[in-house]
Amino acid sequence: MAKTPRRRPWRAWAALISIALVAPACGGSSPAGPSGPSPTPSPAPTPSAVVALTASNFSEVVLSGRNVCMVEFFSPTCPHCQAMEPIVERLAADFKGRAVVAKLNVDTEPALVTEWGIRGWPTFVVAKGGRELSRQLGTATYDELARMLNAALAAP
Q: What is the residue range of 79's domain?
């Protein structure tokens, strides 16, 4: 006697629910259909106040500058670095005109990573005139990083 397959109706419902939830985000049509309301356009991205560093502009921005500069050594694939992005953007906006906030991609600039002794990321280095004043390894709060910048601004 052959066994009949046991029915699992919950699997069919789970599949339908996941399709309904995922389809609009994956390019599917909205529940309102093709004649429904048009999607709201996303706002235009605002220009970032964070300076993107490379080997070609590093010495100009960090080493020869008289300004206080905070450099975040980051990797775009690092989840901790990604979590720090809004904080770094806020710091750049809040300290604009007083200090430079910059980011250096460790994946594209390994020579600078070695030169500055960076062992993990994110690493935040505050420098003035090419001289390192303070360093923070790992994630940090806005207040901790702002304190580092304020201390550097107060230093002679």
A: 51-154
The CATH number that applies at residue 132 is 3.40.30.10
AA letter at 124? F
Any domain includes 70: yes
Tokens of 132: 């390192």
What's the sign of the alpha-carbon dihedral 136, 50, 142, 43?
negative
What DSSP letter does each residue of 48-65 carry, written as one string? Answer: P-SEEE-HHHHIIIIIS-
Q: What is the pLDDT of residue 28?
A: 33
Res 17: pLDDT: 44
Q: What is the pLDDT of residues 128-141, one digit of tens each?
A: 988 999 999 999 99
Domains identified in the chain, total number: 1
Separation in Å, CA 10 to CA 5, 6, 13, 16, 154: 15, 12, 5, 10, 64
CA–CA distance, 59 with 51 (Å, rounded to integer): 13
Residues 94-136: tens digit of each pLDDT: 999 999 999 999 999 999 999 999 999 999 999 998 899 999 9
